Amino acid sequence: MAFKIIVCAKQVPNTNEIKIDPVKGTLKREGVPSILNHDDANALEEALKIKDKYPDTHITVITMGPPQANDMLIECLAMGADDAILASDRALGGSDTWATSNALAAVIGKLDGYDLIFAGRQAIDGDTAQVGPQLAEKLDIPQVTYVREFEIAEDKKSVTVKRALEDGYELIKLSTPCMLTTIKELNTPRYMTISGIFDACKKDIKVFTATDLNVDTDKEVGLDASPTNVYRSFTPAPKGKGIIIEADTASEAAQKLLINLKSKHVV
Q1: 160 and 245 belong to one structural domain
Q2: What is the pLDDT of residues 78-116, one digit of tens each?
Q3: pTM value?
Q4: Cis geometry, peptide bond prior to residue 236 (ω within 30 degrees of 0)
Q5: Of 61, 109, 146, 238, which residue has the fewest beta carbons closer than 10 angstroms?
């Protein structure tokens, strides 16, 4: 029986080119190219590494988004994924992390089981790092976040991961099925291949609507069902020019610094 891996991915705006409307306080998405979320590329790469070692592995990439997210899924297929599913419906628009995890859980519920779920730590357009953990809770499976090293047992019934913490690392072993969210230090994502691109363009990407997923658009998904929303986005005001204190000795520099801070009533 094939070892089944699900990879949760998201199409995001390229934040290197994104701008913010100073009046409306919203992101200007018009004309901004969309890309595969960076951490999700690491999640897919780790799934592909398992498939390299165990060829009977089957990888399904799922996402929720507008119809143009189809392009991102084609990229995932061209990298080596087997199937791709897009949850796309106006009723899903405006979903926060809680509602998004509801939709993804509904997508997974339509599949014929899974052994492992990978997702990126967070999306670069939101940076909340909430969807992966929320999804694991709704599926009632164990989870580990911030995975930077990964090893799967030969029988594929357990995995051992090293989790990055602010002050060190945590080594954890857990049974499958489980949910893992990845960081960029885990691996280096591979490129698409020419043959992979040709094959990907021939594959059919499944599209699920809110009706297909049988979700309540008033209480489970969409803007109305989202308990949180973004009030305003803004670019922090630039800091003023710094002051350089020049002195011949450390004690002289400290004295000048103290005088400067007293003049500004800091001390």
Answers
A1: no
A2: 999 999 999 999 999 989 999 999 999 999 999 999 999
A3: 0.83
A4: no
A5: 238
